[in-house]
Amino acid sequence: TVAEKSALDYADYHPDIIRSTEENLAVLGSLQKAIEGNQLSLDYQPKVTLATGLIYGAEALLRWNHPTLGPLPPEAFIPRIEQSTLIQVVTDFSLEQAAKQVSSWQRAGLELPVAVNISTRNLLHPGFADQLAAMLERYTIDGTLLELEITEGALMTDMERTIEELNRMTQLQIIISIDDFGTGYSSLQYLHRLPISLIKIDQSFVRRCPADKGAVSIVEAAVTLAHNMGIKALAEGVENATVYHFLRDIGCDLAQGYLVSRPLSADEFFNWYHSLDGTFRPPLPAMTGY
Ligand code: C2E
Ligand code: MG
Ligand code: MG
Ligand code: MG
């Protein structure tokens, strides 16, 4: 494939990475087997509305249960395959699984949008919007129940085509979010042209709140930016009650993180949702006044 070839070309000039290139090729090969062998699955992590605690939706996160290496986090293999056409196979898997889950939860009386992470290459792949339309029809689900998370970097590659593709997706009523906001280099000039509904503020800033004043000003600026655009802000990586209450107080709309819940299997998520009656009640912060 193109990715293998370019990785090998690169290795010619950088002999020190040859070993990792060989590792990459091994991962690529076993990924194909993994899909055939049912080693891939999705976990679901809740997103909650800060003002009310209402559970708003879930993010689908890919898991690879490798037969010899054990469970592999997505960061151990996604970055390696993002440059190759294999990422399409992985994205198709995640989308299909998520759509199937939305429709099965819907039949069980649980109606929540589920977000799938999308790579740059997917977004600009010809026919992607048509594929999404066909998938929604096949599972008889509304576009409003499917969310796509796209990282900032992905959006900046080919602005005009990206806007065109995203507009087609929003015509299907699919929700578009910017993931890891603050870590890329998005041009504020372009941001308002994108048909996005949600800005997900990267956990590297969220986790340093409220003690780190620099992080606080970035998070506050991102929330203000979202609100000025008429959209919502979500804070990623909320791990404790102090951060949760801080975010609620500054008017951030949504939160996601270990405080609310770790990513759960589909069945665990369903039981967790019902055990809370659909509302997360945060513990009191350990100290007041931040
Ligand atoms: P992401 O989309 O930014 O997902 C958030 C990551 O932060 C997840 O890691 C999640 O488990 C983790 N996380 C959530 N809450 C907390 C918290 O309170 N503290 C800490 N320390 N971490 C938290 P995960 O599952 O390892 O996924 C890593 C990345 O892999 C994701 O980042 C996403 O970019 C990518 N990814 C996951 N699934 C897929 C997929 O199906 N397709 C593609 N293309 N990428 C995926
Ligand atoms: Mg994400
Ligand atoms: Mg993120
Ligand atoms: Mg990430």
Describe this structure in words.
This protein is an alpha/beta fold and 290 residues long. Helix content is 46%, strand content 18%. The protein has 13 helices and nine strands. The protein has helices spanning 2-13, 18-36, 78-81, 86-107, 120-123, 128-138, 152-155, 159-171, 188-191, 203-206, 213-228, 241-249, 266-275; strands at residues 40-49, 55-66, 70-72, 114-118, 146-151, 175-181, 198-201, 232-235, 254-255. It has an eight-stranded mixed barrel, surrounded by five helices. Strand 8 (232-235), helix 12 and strand 9 (254-255) form a beta-alpha-beta unit. Helix 6 (128-138) packs parallel to helix 8. The longest helix has 22 residues, at 86-107. It is globular and about 50 Å long. The model is unreliable at 1-19 (pLDDT under 50). It binds ligand C2E and magnesium ion (3 copies). One magnesium ion binds next to loops.
Brief synopsis:
Helix content is 46%, strand content 18%. It has 13 helices and 9 strands.
Number of strands: 9
Bound ligand species: ligand C2E, magnesium ion
Unreliable runs: 1-19
> What is the averaged pLDDT score?
88
Distance between the termini: 52 Å
Count of alpha/pi helices: 13
Class per helix and strand makeup: alpha/beta
Bin the helical content: 40-55%
* Cα radius of gyration in angstroms: 20 Å
Strand order of the largest sheet: 1-2-4-5-6-7-8-9
**Main sheet specs:** 8 strands, mixed, barrel
Order of helices and strands: HHEEEHHEHHEHHEHEHHEHEH
Please state the overall shape, judged from the principal axes of the Cα atoms. globular
